[in-house]
Amino acid sequence: MKVVRALQFRLRRGVWYELRLYFKFIGIAIRSRLQYRSDFLFGIAGVLILNLVNLSLIWILVARFQSLAGWQYWEIVMLYGTFLLSHSVYAVFFWHLSNLEDDILHGRFDQYLVRPCSPLLQFLGREVNYMGVADVVFATSVFVLAYHNLGLNWTSVQWGFFAVAILSGTVIETCIVWIIGALAFWTGRSRAIFFVYIRFQILGQQYPIDIFGMWFRIFITGFLPLSFMNYYPLTILLDKPNALGVYGIGFLSPIVAILLLALGALIWRRGLAGYTSSGN
């Protein structure tokens, strides 16, 4: 019994120690980024303009067809805003997971293996993407506008489910990119797969998946489950039928997130165990 308690204490101590280290890494990354303030401001302006262009394209489509598969303009704006809320957290803290192949290919990953700290923790804490701040601001603004224009009045339970959906969406996107990046342990390169993923993300997050064929709906649900970031949770919150006709499927978002997290951890451990330096 004493041995078990000692192991539990060490585990808790280890977790808190690594969390403190992670936040120290993040603090260093933020301070280094703020040294280039002009780049910070121009980067944020660029992200805001890009998001405005995306919403304008959605408006043009809806203005031409009145609605998309029964989704009105402000419902699609909420769809986009919900995706951005999840994506913005990933964009700030985990965007560089897509660049894992560079560290592996050029031998920089070796530095994470010679320090007395988790390699994953070191890699995650090395950088903060300041342009993701613009996604946070824009996502919050468009979501509030959509909520107001739709005349919604969610209960505390609905807001709680929405918060869980946002957190699940962040985990889902982060884990998908993590898994793609970790494939570089075997292939050396994985960015081509990441670019393919981005194409599906654009289609699956800016528009309701009802407008696509059944095979695309199945793929974006079961194989690349991006639709659990915003579409399925919102079909519940907006009381709309979903593309697969499966009642309550949006409640599975946190389960999908947990499964992807477990899969990502497994692939990472396997890749790390078989890692051999490139020698550069």
Radius of gyration: 20 Å
Secondary structure tally, helices: 12
Q: What fraction of the residues are assigned to beta strands by DSSP?
A: under 5%
Task: Point out poorly predicted stretches.
Answer: 1-12
For the biggest sheet, the summary is: none
Structural class, by secondary structure, is mainly alpha
Q: What would the average pLDDT be, to the nearest integer?
A: 79
Q: Tell me the count of domains.
A: 2
How many strands appear in the DSSP assignment? Answer: 0
Give the termini separation: 49 Å
Order of helices and strands: HHHHHHHHHHHH
Categorize the overall geometry: globular
Helical content band = over 70%
What does this structure look like?
This protein is mainly alpha-helical. It has two domains: 35 residues; 238 residues, no CATH class. It is built from twelve helices and no strands. It is globular, with a radius of gyration of 20 Å. The N terminus is likely disordered.
Provide a compact summary of the structure.
The protein contains twelve helices and no strands. With 280 residues, the protein is mainly α. Helix 2 runs parallel beside helix 6 and helix 3 runs antiparallel to helix 6.
Q: Key features?
A:
280 residues; 12 helices; disordered N terminus; mainly alpha; globular
Task: Detail the topology: elements first, then pairings.
Elements: H1 2-33, H2 37-65, H3 73-93, H4 100-105, H5 119-125, H6 132-149, H7 156-182, H8 184-187, H9 191-206, H10 214-223, H11 231-237, H12 253-273
